[in-house]
């Protein structure tokens, strides 16, 4: 048994970490937060140039062909550094859907463009929860008409994969009849937009198989996002720990109060629990194991819990300063919410985990 | 990343399986325990017989060096053995302290003649060991022990009291933490010994546990003589010896949680009704089943990470500290929820409600002890905060003061 990443994979992680520490600074993230940029361009450029974003795309389609384990570690660093880039939309979702459901021609055409960063792609693969009535979106086999759900990076994407019933539909966003409607986002570092189509040319990705492919892609995304969540949670816990060693109250470091120590120990415990479930998910994803649905759902629930508690308590343990715009605490508070819901909430995934466990026990 | 056995591991597994099939007795119910229906003496005899067979086959101390009576095997082999043995009726608890703590401490600190004297019979189950650290005034704060050791020629004379000593009523030897110097600060005046539990002046009184069993004891020492050759480590070096014992416990990868808890929950939820429907169809129940799995599988996976480190020749990381913290509380929560499934009827003992409930009811009654033994939740959180996160230690007033003065304070 070997339940760890290889030295080569760790080397890639270190390189990505060094690069992100230099480029994905608080200032770079805030350019997006405050609406002066659609994404952190230098960070995105570097992730593409290093081949880090396209690690899981096979070499024949322009990727690095290093597999999912490497991508998991890239994701952990992206989460840790709050990278404001379309990594999840392009690579965990859209590229995966095309890889798993596309025709050879579709793969040949689109994957190299995504891998090289020439095209940013996004996807809406369906979710169990909804508030607003679904806007009508119809695909007649050749064209698309109607309004998409809110899409991450919809403002800059050149390509979208949309689930319509059991169909997965591929639509180029430079085509005719496309308009974009940017929407306010609780995490403005991950902007949302809705797309409107009027007889826009589009093509089918996976016929009758669409629902199954979507579900498989979402499982993979759940694992990758869990690594982002674990990275983000670790970052805010470390920042909180460091602050608690500097700040004094009642004549002591606030980190010496047992209430503070125990809370941080609990956050650490939640993160380590999430980390091992994420690792297990990484194993299932990379080996295409039958355990993937269970492992992915477990990783998602545990990682969503961990990042949520780390971000919430991170502000609390900082005190008033943690509630200011200038401190990065709220960037994690927002990102934790974003990552925890963008492919369906913790509750929906917990229900999925239960379904899997009960099915297995039968 | 790879969870499959290597060819060598698969071969070892096959060997273990064949041996267990030939020598062991498989469980017939998931909650069946070793020695059901036997009285204490017969159960102890059966346990010793099993341990002797296991030792003869080389499975009693797989990771120990050959010179010390072990197999010289790997940590992975140890785990494989445990995984395979889990399907069999074996006396788990009885030898836990011997193999996990007592004998390793002897192996590390005793003189060669004593190792020759104690290790083999200990591994073979002929002699059983207990651990005498806690006292009425020294539990979490183990450094506060007051059991007095006074030098008398080649002997030491011991007076005092221990408490919560698991298994003392059937043990032959113990590792005993005493205070030999009252003028030194708390942790610096301690000395560790091997004590013969049958020696004159040792009195064991069982304590009735909340679970109804009597597995731990008070132990009184009145003018008990221990030869100086039975000292473990230097005079006043007892604290260091104790830490090494606890480290052994950590390396032996404890804090495990049964891997079938969520499956038990599923089975019980299928039998209960909530609002005239099978409870298993209720979303609240399903959510709790999912959460049970997260904890249980999580502990298994944290241990898998620790083992990976060990198998690469590294020390397991600090994350191992969380396993007992998660496991004991998870055990309590899962068992309580299982009992809740049946509503008012869940209050019936399993003798009336049915054997399917025995496992969870036992777990529920044992869980509070698991949260305390080997370090309370609060102490473990202090350990994580201080050793893993680097937060400041607790403010203490007892560090530099001679123990004698603390006493009178
Ligand atoms: C089933 C069982 C088996 C055992 N077997 C053995 C055995 O074989 N040998 C042996 O030597 N001992 C044994 N013990 C004893 C065990 O190690 C102690 O009970 C344990 O360390 C707690 O000590 P205490 O009971 O004195 O509680 P205390 O230390 O008095 O603790 C009482 C409460 O105070 C809290 N507390 C104490 N210090 C702090 C602190 N610094 N910060 C925050 N909270 C604190 C604790 O968390 C706890 O909630 C066993 C105990 C149990 C329950």
UniProtKB/TrEMBL annotation, chain A:
Pfam families: Acyl-CoA_dh_1, Acyl-CoA_dh_N. The keyword Oxidoreductase applies. It comes from the Bacteria. Residues 209-354 form the Acyl-CoA dehydrogenase/oxidase C-terminal domain. InterPro entries: AcylCo_DH-like_C, AcylCo_DH/oxidase_C, AcylCoA_DH/ox_N, AcylCoA_DH/ox_N_sf, AcylCoA_DH/oxidase_NM_dom_sf. Residues 6-118 form the Acyl-CoA dehydrogenase/oxidase N-terminal domain. Keywords: FAD, Flavoprotein, Oxidoreductase. GO terms for molecular function: acyl-CoA dehydrogenase activity; flavin adenine dinucleotide binding. PANTHER family: ACYL-COA DEHYDROGENASE, ACYL-COA DEHYDROGENASE FADE28. Belongs to the acyl-CoA dehydrogenase family. This is Acyl-CoA dehydrogenase. It comes from Parazoarcus communis SWub3 = DSM 12120.
TrEMBL record, chain B:
Residues 6-126 form the Acyl-CoA dehydrogenase/oxidase N-terminal domain. InterPro entries: Acyl-CoA_Oxase/DH_mid-dom (IPR006091), Acyl-CoA_Oxase/DH_mid-dom_sf (IPR046373), AcylCo_DH-like_C (IPR036250), AcylCo_DH/oxidase_C (IPR009075), AcylCoA_DH/ox_N (IPR013786), AcylCoA_DH/ox_N_sf (IPR037069), AcylCoA_DH/oxidase_NM_dom_sf (IPR009100), Mycobact_Acyl-CoA_DH (IPR052161). Residues 130-224 form the Acyl-CoA oxidase/dehydrogenase middle domain. Residues 238-389 form the Acyl-CoA dehydrogenase/oxidase C-terminal domain. Keywords: FAD, Flavoprotein, Oxidoreductase. It comes from the Bacteria. One of its GO terms (cellular component) is plasma membrane. The keyword Cell membrane does not apply. PANTHER family: ACYL-COA DEHYDROGENASE, ACYL-COA DEHYDROGENASE FADE34. This is Acyl-CoA dehydrogenase. It comes from Parazoarcus communis SWub3 = DSM 12120. The lineage of its organism: Bacteria, Pseudomonadati, Pseudomonadota, Betaproteobacteria, Rhodocyclales.
């Amino acid at each position: 048994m070997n339940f760890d990443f290889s030295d080569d994979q760790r080397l890639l992680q270190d390189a990505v970490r060094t690069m992100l520490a230099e480029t994905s600074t608080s200032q770079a993230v805030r350019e997006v937060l405050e609406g002066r940029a659609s994404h952190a361009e230098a960070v995105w450029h570097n992730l593409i140039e290093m081949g880090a974003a396209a690690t899981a795309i096979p070499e024949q389609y322009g990727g690095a062909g290093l597999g999912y384990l490497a991508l998991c570690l890239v994701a952990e660093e992206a989460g840790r550094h709050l990278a404001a880039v379309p990594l999840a939309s392009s690579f965990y979702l859209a590229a995966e859907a095309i890889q798993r459901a596309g025709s050879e021609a579709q793969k040949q055409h689109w994957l190299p463009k995504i891998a090289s960063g020439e095209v940013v792609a996004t996807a809406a693969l369906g979710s169990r929860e909804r508030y607003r009535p679904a806007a009508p979106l119809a695909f007649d086999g050749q064209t698309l008409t109607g309004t998409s759900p809110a899409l991450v990076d919809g403002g800059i994407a050149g390509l979208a994969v949309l689930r319509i019933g059991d169909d997965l539909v591929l639509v180029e966003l430079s085509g005719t009849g496309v308009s974009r409607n940017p929407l306010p986002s609780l995490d403005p570092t991950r902007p949302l937009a809705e797309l409107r189509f009027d007889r826009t040319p589009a093509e089918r990705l996976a016929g009758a198989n669409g629902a199954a492919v979507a579900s498989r892609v979402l499982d993979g995304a759940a694992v990758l996002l869990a690594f982002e969540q674990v990275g983000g949670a670790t970052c805010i816990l470390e920042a909180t720990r460091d602050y608690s060693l500097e700040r004094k109250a009642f004549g002591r470091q606030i980190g010496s109060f047992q209430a503070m120590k125990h809370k941080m120990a609990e956050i650490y415990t939640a993160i380590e629990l999430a980390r091992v479930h994420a690792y297990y998910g990484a194993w299932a994803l990379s080996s295409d194991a039958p355990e993937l649905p269970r492992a992915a759902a477990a990783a998602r629930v545990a990682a969503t819990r961990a990042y949520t508690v780390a971000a919430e308590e991170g502000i609390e343990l900082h005190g008033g300063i943690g509630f200011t715009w200038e401190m990065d605490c709220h960037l994690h508070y927002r990102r934790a919410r974003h990552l925890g819901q963008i492919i369906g909430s913790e509750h929906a995934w917990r229900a999925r985990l239960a379904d899997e466990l009960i099915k297995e026990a039968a | 990343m790879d969870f499959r056995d290597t060819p060598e591991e698969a071969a070892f597994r096959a060997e273990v399986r064949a041996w267990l099939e030939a020598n062991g007795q498989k469980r017939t119910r998931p909650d069946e325990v070793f020695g059901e229906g036997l009285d204490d003496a017969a159960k102890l005899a059966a346990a010793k017989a099993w341990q002797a067979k296991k030792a003869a086959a080389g499975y009693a101390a797989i990771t120990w060096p050959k010179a010390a009576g072990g197999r010289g095997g790997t940590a992975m082999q140890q785990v494989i053995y445990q995984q395979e043995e889990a399907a069999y009726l074996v006396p788990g608890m009885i030898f836990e302290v011997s193999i996990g703590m007592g004998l390793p401490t002897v192996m590390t600190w005793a003189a060669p003649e004593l190792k020759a004297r104690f290790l083999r019979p200990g591994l073979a189950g002929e002699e059983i060991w207990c651990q005498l650290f806690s006292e009425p005034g020294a539990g979490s704060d183990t450094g506060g022990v007051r059991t007095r050791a006074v030098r008398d020629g080649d002997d030491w004379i011991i007076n005092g009291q221990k408490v919560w000593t698991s298994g003392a009523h059937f043990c032959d030897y113990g590792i005993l933490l005493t205070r030999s110097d009252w003028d030194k600060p708390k942790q610096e005046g301690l000395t560790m010994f091997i004590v013969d539990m049958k020696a004159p002046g040792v009195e064991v009184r069982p304590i009735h546990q909340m679970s109804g069993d009597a597995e731990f004891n008070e132990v009184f020492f009145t003018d008990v003589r221990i030869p100086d050759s039975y000292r473990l480590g230097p005079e006043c070096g007892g604290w260091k010896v104790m830490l090494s014992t606890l480290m052994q416990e950590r390396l032996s990868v404890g804090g495990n949680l049964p891997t079938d808890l969520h499956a038990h929950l599923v089975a019980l939820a299928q039998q209960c009704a909530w609002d005239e429907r099978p409870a298993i169809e209720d979303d609240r129940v399903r959510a709790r089943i999912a959460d049970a799995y997260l904890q249980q599988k999580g502990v298994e996976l944290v241990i898998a990470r620790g083992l990976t480190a060990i198998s690469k020749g590294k020390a397991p990381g600090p994350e191992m500290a969380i396993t007992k913290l998660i496991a004991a509380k998870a055990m309590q929560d899962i068992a309580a929820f299982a009992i809740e499934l049946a509503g008012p009827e869940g209050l019936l003992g399993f003798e009336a409600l049915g054997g399917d409930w025995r496992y969870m009811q036992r777990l529920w009654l044992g869980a509070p002890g698991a949260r305390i033994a080997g370090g309370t939740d609060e102490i473990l959180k202090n350990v994580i905060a201080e050793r893993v996160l680097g937060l400041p230690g607790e403010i203490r007033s007892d560090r530099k003061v001679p123990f004698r003065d603390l006493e009178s304070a």
